[in-house]
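Quarterly update from the structural biology core.
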Amino acid sequence: MDEPEPWWTGAVVYQVYPRSFADGNGDGIGDLAGLRRRLDHIADLGVDVVWLSPVYRSPQADNGYDISDYEDIDPLFGTLDEFDALLVEVHRHGMKLVMDLVVNHSSDQHPWFQAAKLSRTCPKHDWYIWRDPVDGHEPNEWRAAFGGPAWSWDPGTGQYYLHMFTPQQPDLNWDNADMRDAVYTMMNHWLDRGVDGFRMDVINHIAKDPAALADGSAAYVMQPRIHDHLQEMHERVFAGRDALLTVGEMPGVTVEDAVLFTDPERHELDMVFQFEHVGLDHGPTSKFDNEPFDLVALKASLARWQTGLADTGWNSLYLANHDQPRPVSRFGAAAVAAAHGFRADPFDLRYESATLLATVLHLHRGTPYLYQGDEIGMVNAGFTAIDEYRDVESLNWFRGAVGRGMPVDDALQALAVRSRDNARTPMPWDDATPAGGFSDVEPWIGMGQGWPRVTVASDRAAGDRSVYEHHRRLIALRHDSRTVRVGDFTLLEADHAALWAFTRSLEDAAEPGLVVVANLSSSRMTLPDAVAERLGRCVLGNLGVPAPDDARSLQPWEARVHEDLG
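Predicted structure, tokenized:
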């Protein structure tokens, strides 16, 4: 008898970026109390897991991804007691809680790093990565992800320390066994408290070769010891615990790498976040060098991962998170119009775009990740001045680009498309209060161009044009259908510039196969005969169930799921 599939094959994860979700104490910043009060909104979707972005104690140099105390909650977000109360409520709603874990680096305010700076002979000095100057400057040419050198000078020790992100985020030395012991102890502490797993930030960066002198990522992404570290982590932390979820964020990971990381026989991780599909519209020099949206390339990329992990391993499915622009603005009707040289209203076909993208994502094989606000079809922030931005990456890039001679308007346009702040504007709960129900005072960042037009209240009241309700139907379909959960994936019409079509099927034929068809254009589409002839009963559609005579065509930005006639 076959082993049952892991529980997470049928799960959907909802990511909460806490500072932008709901403000419970009236300081303009979202927190645990606000999240707890709004938890019904998440539970009503039917999701299985809440992924909570970092709420640990932090100086907030990178919005909490710089942790100064791994075992405490930052007062900005609340207290440990409030965290425990939230955990109880999440579990009471039948959901799991996964915490963000950032152990590639800590904050420079962490006691570990403060001790490391005291002396080269301090035991914790080796918990970080230090190098002597080379010819009076940095030991190599590595560049930090947010701009500038990846090395900062510490006059007290007379050495440089490594930071692949900001200088306030020194990288931990995973070659040090005592440091690894401390990390595993901390992770077990949270799991013993009742947490249900971890999303691990840039976890493939932890194995490094600082002796390398070449520029680029080759010496700090997926060095051979990464597998040793993750297998040790599994043995020391995850083994013997039931129903956990472990996912590793891995910039630069390949399909072949992902098979190794997620092969259950290797005892490393359940799944990884790969970046291939969200890098397709990045230019050759940086992610802010924007390229037009290319559906053929996007389909091919996701299909390659579907095929590559079909037999071993598992996919995570996402189009959005706290680091990515909003899908409606990036892949929807406005983006397609821009790719063809037209300027489009950012709200043009917003409902259709949001629900189509949700349909194709949820119908792939893997675990879908839904980012807060996408369930109501939020759009990019639409900021037009640099003082509206808060993200350290965006601010650093803007200063550098303008300093190199880029016109200010061009730099602002690049940020408007690509900045991480596009995903970080507050959740707009209603249109009746100045901060959209997010807070009683001015929020830490502007509400963005979507408010007051797009709100939770208005979307949930929109009936058959509710993005939220469409997500509920998609999540229920995954829960009900083994074909959706673990069926095989086959891409159809790979070279079609506007049609996204694929099948899902099971060998045992215990339930019918499915055909997904989606029209990513603003014109009515007649389906190719080879696709149209497969369409059986319509299971779900973002524009309803078509009349029999209309089933062979798709309205603009229509997506449907049909039983497959084969």
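The mean pLDDT is 95.
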